[in-house]
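Technical note accompanying the year-one report. For the benefit of new consortium partners, we illustrate the data format agreed upon in the data management plan: each record pairs a sequence with a structure-token string. No post-processing was applied to the example shown here.
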Amino acid sequence: MMRKKSIFIAPIVALLLAASVAGCSQEKVRQAGVAGAFYPANPDELSTMVDGFLAKAQAPSTNAPLIALIAPHAGYPYSGGVAGHSYALLKNRKFHRVVIIAPSHYEAFNFSAVYDGDAYVTPLGRISVDKAFAAALVAQSSSIRLSSRGHDRSGEQAEHSLEVQLPFLQRTIAQFQLVPIIMGDQSYEASRALGVALAKLIHDSDTLIVASSDLSHYHPYDEASTIDHNTLRAIEAWDYFNLSRNLQARVWEACGGGPIVATMIAAERLGANRAELLKYANSGDVTGDRSRVVGYSAFALYKAAPTNTDARPFTLTPKEKQELLSVARKSVETAVRERKTFKPSAGSPALQQDRGAFVTITKNGELRGCIGYVSPMQPLIETVRDVAALAALRDNRFPPVTTSELGELRYEVSVLSPFRRVLDVREIHVGQHGLLMKNGDQEGLLLPQVPIEAGWDRKTFLEETARKAGLPASAWKEDDTDIFRFSALVFNEGKPPESITPQASSPVKRP
């Protein structure tokens, strides 16, 4: 979030009221830390501001069960309008418990901290912590603890990411119990542990989960929009695996990436199957300064009627396919002959989308090299360029390709779709889906072509993917194993092309 100077003056009356709440008992209460800075400290002014955001938001008309929200956490003048689109959905809905998952901006710790106190306070009043739920939650995983870390003031700084969500909740659903969680560790493993734990404890429709997150920080307007829309597409596609991986690698940006991933994992296990983008904007849309902006989004995670999640497959024109095959060949020939990196032209908009891809090289019908990027880390045309050269020179199952071989090589490109966790192995269609299996630090991937070429059925495909991950063949049945399916747009060279003279100028291998 953007650093901001104080934009509101906190009235003495409000401060005295907060102090009296804390002093009337021995309860542990987390006082408002950013009232008067991120949002007004005056209750009437705050209510008017929040109600204004809610009134301007256009909430979609749906009766689908709402499982979770994603909302930004910057100062209200900057992100409040976007947050209003999330919270406008709560009108005429009732929840008795709200779980808020937020990132730690100022204090470092390696666990998810569930507040160990009795209540949070804002200028709009007190919100009691659901202590019974909190205790049950921390019992689920050693990476979740009762703690004030991230909640209490750290030096001169008070964490805002959770607090700024509360007035919106107080002006929409009013009476609820709070489960406040600050994530000090936003890794996939920590996010999974928290998401799975929440799903095990939520047994009804009376609990709402809120993920608190801003998006990219301090890029020029157009660059920020490009980065942010990669993140938005991953959320809409429910690909939290690659979302987490790219956020950890800082390829994409979201300061609350861990909360988003944990929320998606929990919501998925609670039946949510649709992520709807309600609003995207950045600070430049508010201030007019487009030189260094911060991105904001509002999402709703629903339990909607079942749909075909592969209904909008990624496609390329014949010309675009041929261009990628040409890039693969030119990249290898340039790397082998000149030890240089081939520089392709920008290509069409489709080739500029961030996509994972593999390049398979064969010689006389036999595998000669295959390496790919699983995650969509860069534009597709650059991914194909890079993995083609790696397949030729860095696949340690084979010696590097030599100049004399170049005319005998054939190329195949596999462009990967977003990943979706397998909820039922009957979803897996041999020949249509590839698989990635992950258990802790071990993971393995097999492309859709592999089981067809090997003549495997679904069970064998699962067992071989487990073995590829270095796991026992039966690991696909274990609760700690995540199986993700994906499809691939596969195309290759038909008639052997004439030799092409090159211009001057963390990969995965296929078995």
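Partners are asked to follow this layout when depositing records. DSSP finds 14 helices and 21 strands in the chain.
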